Amino acid sequence: MENQRLGRLVLVIFPLQGHTTPMLQLGTFLHSKGFAITVAHTRFNPPNPSKYPHFTFLLLSDKLTESYTPATLNFYDLESITRNCDLPLQEFLELQTQTADSQVVGIIFDSIMSFAATVADHFKIPRLVFMTSSAGFDRAFWAFPRLLAEGYLPFQDSMLHELVPQESPLRFKDLPVYKQNIEETLKLIDYGRNLKNFSAIILNTIDCLEQSSLFQLRQHYKVPVFPIGPLSKVAPALSTSFLEEETSCITWLNDQPAKSVLYVSKGSLAISDEKELTETFWGLANSDQPFLWVVRPGSVSGSEWTEVLPKDFKEIVRERGLIVKWAPQKEVLAHSAVGGFWTHCGWNSSMESLCEGVPMISSPQFFDQKVIARYITHVWKVGFELDGVLERGDVDKSIRRLMTGREGNEVRQRAIELKHMINVSTLEGGSSYNSLNDLTEFLLAKNV
Ligand code: UDX
Predict the structure, then answer these.
(1) What pLDDT score does 318 carry?
(2) What parts of the sequence cross the membrane (predicted)?
């Protein structure tokens, strides 16, 4: 049956949770449209094939050793992740061209796995880049060369709270500075310039959220752009977690009053220290608000998990708080008991929250998260910022502001309005619905 499908698409994934999830969701959609799917992955963090019986898999060698874990992987270690990956992809494509099985009609690659574009180009196969963050992030990224030419870079600490010219509402502190270093950022932009070698761009975003950034993106790249989000709704049942989800927290949520629980999670990469963990705990405990808190093992430097918290922390929070190692996040955010999300503003988490109409407290850690956080508070106006060194008093105040205050009600109303707009975009005739169809047509046209 497989060779009667519309042709094969190769999906080249980057092996982090926030990148793998949306790519597998996209693959699931494209498979439902009739394409055969091959998932090309590294030895590090491979997807579990038994969870995706409709896909085939291609192992790309990489320079990562077995000792790497999600907690120790340096996100910026792009070079070692992509080194040696091109050859297996090339061999695979050579083999495919010799067999009449299913013709490879396109390669969809994570923007970090840009070697795939060069390989695909060699075989004259359409290459589509999948940008796993927001359009606003990409736009902010491309502002750096202009800011350099206009003499704004490097910027002084005294400018951190000033608005970036032509990039309002971003402040200098919201710019996605790579490795906290402007020179490194400019180097990465140079690397990105070579990435222009692609036929189309796919983004897990929605027209109604990022219309002006999408407009700029189209002007900049001059190729078709497909904003097809929210992918979490396109393939809702797909399980993509690398870590085991503690589903028992849903039973706990079932016993909590509607909209009362603050969900707290900092995604799959963010690292904090023991002081931050303690201040977070006391802020949560003092707020008198029910909370479900994800503390990923290894995410607190110097601790394995929550040892640093007071021994009697369970008595302190009584039945009002639950700490887990990893949650079924989409299910949690969709639960009627959840009334707020304290997030690190990773793009997937932010989109999942927007889809469910859950207002946010934003505490970005690095890179794209800073841009996304600013959009949450100042463009979509669905949350409040909690930035800088965490102090229990500020945490407590922010939680009360979001969960019980008048302002909290206003952002909650706004979040519900956005949820409806997002929902409409996925229905027949909606922008994402149309974009998904356009993407399918684009791939089919390349197939003739
Ligand atoms: C990273 C970057 O930080 C992010 O900014 C970028 O946009 C993508 O890559 P990550 O930090 O993990 O991702 O954040 P995010 O994009 O939010 O992805 C986290 C994913 O893990 C989400 O899909 C979320 O649902 C899932 N998750 C998180 C769980 O399933 N359970 C949890 O307990 C926590």
Answers:
(1) 76
(2) none
19 lines ligand 1 (CB under 6 A): yes
> Which of 365, 368, 319 shows the shortest CA–CA distance to 343?
365
pTM, two decimals, is 0.96
Q: Provide the token pair at 147.
A: 């800011």
Return d(Cα 383, Cα 17) in angstroms, integer.
Answer: 24
270 Cα nearest atom in ligand 1: 11
Please state whether beta strands 200-203 and 338-343 pair in parallel, antiparallel, or not at all (unpaired): unpaired
Measure the CA–CA gap between 63 and 150, rounded to whole angstroms. Answer: 40
Cα-to-centroid distance, 133 and ligand 1 (Å): 11
Contact at 8 Å (CB) between 86 and 92? no
Any atom of ligand 1 within 6 Å of the Cβ of 330: yes
Ligand 1: residue whose CA is nearest its atom 21: 267
Q: How far, in Å, is the centroid of ligand 1 from the Cα of 84?
A: 27
Residue 8: beta bridge partners?
A: 36, 104
For a mutational test of ligand 1's pocket, the pick from 14, 17, 21, 344, i.e. the residue with the most ligand atoms closer than 8 A to its C-beta, is 17
- Ligand 1 atom closest to Cα of 268? 12
CA of 350 to the centre of ligand 1 (A): 9
β-strand partners of 341: 263, 360
- Extract the residue ranges of the chain whose pLDDT is less than 50: 1, 3, 448
C-alpha to C-alpha distance for 114 and 127, rounded to whole angstroms: 10
Determine whether the shortest distance from the Cβ of 170 to ligand 1 is under 6 A.
no
Residue 21 CA, ligand 1 centroid: distance in Å: 9
**CB 369 near ligand 1, within 6 Å:** yes
Tell me the residue length of the chain: 448
Whole-angstrom CA distances from 28 to 162, 336, 341 are: 43, 27, 28
Q: Is residue 27 within 8 Å of 55, Cβ to Cβ?
A: yes
Alpha-carbon distance 389 to 136, whole Å? 26
Relative orientation angle of helices 406-426 and 347-356, to the nearest 10 degrees: 90
Beta-carbon contacts of 349 under 8 Å, excluding residues fewer than 6 positions away, are: 265, 267, 329, 341, 343
Residue 261 is given by DSSP the state E
